[in-house]
Amino acid sequence: MAKRKPLVDNDDNDHEPLQRLMSIVASPWTLLLLHRLHMEGPKRFGELKRRLGKISTKTLTERLRRLEAEGWLLRHYEPTVPPQVTYSITEKVLELDGVMVELDRIAERWYGKSKKK
């Protein structure tokens, strides 16, 4: 039986930057998390969890850690009792402003509260 040629040529790195960006943005909850921080400003962990709804603590923690490691979020730690940690977006994420605003408009048009299912 003949081997099938892969859909993506692994030797071709032309799409590597886009693949990296999409692997981050397309992971569940990430875009909504970034949107909340972009539109509403810095938030503490508990606030983010409440604003995102059904996200698990584990998933939120993973997303925050990855976005911080990628330089998309800033984590501000206050050594109080109990400690206060606030998350905010970086300048890098502000480059996604047009994308987020347009996705918000499309979502309202397609799935807004006045639309029937």
TrEMBL record:
What SUPFAM superfamilies has UniProt attached to this entry?
Answer: Winged helix' DNA-binding domain
Instruction: Tell me if Transcription is a UniProt keyword of this record.
Output: yes
Recorded GO MF terms: DNA binding
The record's listing under InterPro entries reads: HTH_HxlR, WH-like_DNA-bd_sf, WH_DNA-bd_sf
The reply on keyword DNA-binding is yes
Q: Which keywords accompany this UniProt record?
A: DNA-binding, Transcription, Transcription regulation
UniProt domain HTH hxlR-type: residue ranges? 16-115
Q: Which Pfam families match?
A: HxlR (PF01638)
Q: What is this protein called?
A: HTH-type transcriptional regulator YodB
